[in-house]
Amino acid sequence: MNYSLNDEQKILKDTARSFFTEELKSSLVREVEEDEQGYSRKLWESIAEFGWMGTIIPEEFGGFEATFFELSLILEEMGYAGYAGPFFSTVVLGALTILTAGTPEQKRSVLEEVSLGKRLMTLALEETGDGPSACEIATTAKKVADGFLLNGCKRFVPFAHVADTIICAARTGDGGKNGEEGISLFLVDRRSQGVSIEVLNTIARDKQCDVVFNNVLVSGDSLLGEAGEGWQLLQGVLRVASVAKCAEMVGGARKVLEMVVEYAKTRKQFGQPIGSFQAIQHHCANMLTCLDSSALLTFYASKRIGQGLSYEKEAAMCKAWVSDSYRKLTALGHQVMGGVGFIDESDLQIYFRRAKAAEQALGDATYHREIVAQLMGL
Amino acid sequence: MEIELNSRESAILEEVRRFLKSEVTPELLAESHHLEYIYGGEEGRKFVRKFAANGWLTPCWPEEYGGLNSSEMLMYAIRNEMAYARVPIHFAGAHMAGPSILRYGNDDLKKNYLLRLASGEIEFALGYSEPAAGSDLMGLEMRAADKGDHLIVNGQKTFNTHAHVADYHWLAVRTNLEGPKHKGISILIVDLKSPGITIRPMITMAGTRTNEVFYDDVVVPRANLVGEINSGFKYIMAALDFERMFPFGHYKKFYEDLVAYLKTVTRNGMPLTKDPLVRQKLAQLEIELEIIHHLYFQLAHMLDNGKIPNYQASMEKNFLTDFEQRLANTALEILGARGQLREGANGAILDGLPEWLYRWTVIETIYGGTAEIQRNIMAQRGLGLPRA
Ligand SMILES: Cc1cc2nc3c(=O)[nH]c(=O)nc-3n(C[C@H](O)[C@H](O)[C@H](O)COP(=O)(O)OP(=O)(O)OC[C@H]3O[C@@H](n4cnc5c(N)ncnc54)[C@H](O)[C@@H]3O)c2cc1C
After folding, report:
1. Alpha carbon of B208: minimum distance to chain A alpha carbons (Å)
2. Which CATH number fits domain B125-231: 3.30.2130.10, 1.20.1250.20, 2.40.110.10, 1.10.10.10?
3. Which residues form the Acyl-CoA dehydrogenase/oxidase C-terminal domain (chain A) (predicted)?
4. Cα(A68)–Cα(A55) distance, rounded to whole angstroms?
5. What is the pLDDT of residue A177?
6. What is the tens place of the pLDDT at every residue in B327-348?
7. What is the predicted pLDDT for the residue at B150?
8. Residue ranges of domains in chain B
9. What is the reported pLDDT for B44?
10. Maximum CA pair distance of chain A?
């Protein structure tokens, strides 16, 4: 394995780092947490100017046609800077699903607007919050004369309240084995009659939503992919999205470690920098191990996805490991910083709360270890 | 779990339990939670005065100062019951400053403060930490100039938690700039309403409040000096030992509520508590709680037998505070995404307590002496390992 970036990738990463360093100061990160929309429109537009929403979108739809690996570099920088907003939901959960399952017509009508930053998207999948699973999907899509009628409640849908398009997984068939058959995906306009959305108050204040579909009528051509095959279509998307989440986490972990080590070098107690105490050195060394191990697994999984190689097991291993490591790293960070890290004014607490949310997103470590076990043939 | 008490004390503990069952109101619980169980809120004061009238706040103090002359065991047991009932449990006055006054204060101080502390009438705020002095309290810089019958105090404190609800400051100040640092510190009792004191909130990640406190030429009568001038470091160390007695009832209650809740949840067609993975995690916590019970009551036992706990107190603090973090995290792991919902959110579990504890318990291994400092104590005092 080649563990380094090529020149273009380096430039991309450096550009993203300096852009976010400049444009996303800690004060804006905080404003965004308090903001009802949960993102900065101005920043969104600047990101769109770079064309980053279109990183993995083919050129014919206005994108860059780069690989997932390049996208993961941007996501890492977003994680580093503490970006919160509908980028992940739009580009990973939305555009990637369309790329995987959409007809040429659907791709044309949706992806170009995504590339331009003109359409926000999300995926309404989970209902119970126990991690993505087919058998929990109870939302129904009933065939009617002029399309389908959607009914059901989705939970933990990121940024549904601002998404233009919600991809909703619903049952058109009777479920079959493990409930994996008979699930279909629909493109739903958030403003459709019968859609109601409530933003949930969560640990990370990250604008996850309850979405209720009450007799929502969608047209026949809003069906995404083959009827009844939604779950199979989503499998790949969810694995890739898990790695994408890991990229964000690795960025956050890197930032936390830098912040904490800097503090350990300058904060003095007992007449010396606290970083000279072995207890603190060991915490920092453990944090470093959490970071490097996470970065390596994420790098490897992202590369395989980017190169079109199989990635199921690598992705699951990655999300399982990084979910736990990032949480541990931020907790150790608090231990090193002492009281100041606990105060709202410290940025550390933002990363700490988000690490928990990221751990839960798209299945936690237990969930992904089970996938690894299955892939091991156990 | 049995707690060994004589029959008089067993009867008292039973009475305390009955009292807590009947007197704890939803308003008190709400206030207590939002003040993260410190004492000084309105509801808390109402409740504690009634509670303390029985001598239950300071049972092991002598009767003349408002105690019951009881064993430490009863004191530990009562505090743990209070924690279990989720009423205020952090009494900077009755449980930290008070014992030091009892040990080191002159008769006037004892008369002035002990009865009022024992009856829950007044509360103190601990004023140790400063921007440059956290773990290293010898680094204190706040100055008190000795003017004979009074002292004049200037400087800044940080993280003084009770300051916005308390009546008095238990204040560590530098009274001598010459000589070794630990021989230049004194303890003063300061009325927090004194002119020249400014209290500013510092809000924490858990949404709770601690404070910065600024002193600008604050006049403190000499009568409010605790013990000998320049001997304060000794008193702080003693008071910190009292602080380190961390009851576990609050976490036991949360654990019990969690288990009860999990019994009602089915996942993949079976009760969650039948899931082997969940069972393992809950059983582990059960074992750890049992250990904490022993670590905690062992401290009381030692005190009752005339021994001074040293590394054992550090071990209890560390084991409990580490446990709290494991408990909160395990709860969130088992609850899945729903665990991250905050109090009041649609679908929040146990009214958002798991999520709040996850944020809150971060600080438990830091304040009251960090986990690293406790481990240093255990290694050096407990095992005789050399200092770096
Ligand atoms: C919510 C909250 C409430 C508080 N309430 C009060 C209060 O009411 N009154 C009050 O006076 N204070 C209070 N404190 C302060 C608290 O006691 C201190 O935060 C704590 O003692 C640690 O000090 P510090 O934060 O300055 O960390 P530091 O002392 O700077 O420590 C930073 C890191 O260095 C480590 N370290 C330091 N020295 C050593 C060493 N010798 N060996 C190994 N590791 C070392 C620490 O363990 C920690 O990991 C409170 C703090 C908070 C956050």
Report:
1. 9
2. 2.40.110.10
3. 228-374
4. 8
5. 65
6. 999 999 999 999 999 999 989 9
7. 97
8. 7-90, 125-231, 245-383
9. 97
10. 79
**Which domains are present in chain A?**
7-118 (1.10.540.10), 123-228 (2.40.110.10), 232-376 (1.20.140.10)
Which one of the listed residues B243, B316, B324, B364 is annotated catalytic?
B243
Q: Ligand 1, residues A276, A278, A280, A340: which to mutate, most atoms within 8 A of Cβ? A: A280
Q: Cα separation of B218 and B224, whole Å?
A: 13
Domain B245-383 class, CATH top level: mainly alpha
What is the pLDDT at residue A131?
Answer: 86
Strands (E), chain A: 121-124, 140-144, 147-158, 165-171, 183-189, 195-199, 208-218, 223-224, 268-269, 272-273
- pLDDT over 90 (residue B181): no
The token pair at A28 is: 């804006």
Backbone angles phi, psi at B218, to 5 degrees: -85, 130
Question: Is the confidence at residue B199, as pLDDT, over 70?
Answer: yes
Q: CA triplet A204, A82, A293: central angle to 5 degrees?
A: 95
pLDDT value at B388 more than 70: yes
CA of B342 to the centre of ligand 1 (A): 27
pTM of the shown model: 0.95
* Tokens found for residue A101: 């399952």
Residue nearest to atom 34 of ligand 1 (CA): A274
Please give the radius of gyration of chain B, using alpha carbons only, rounded to the nearest integer: 22
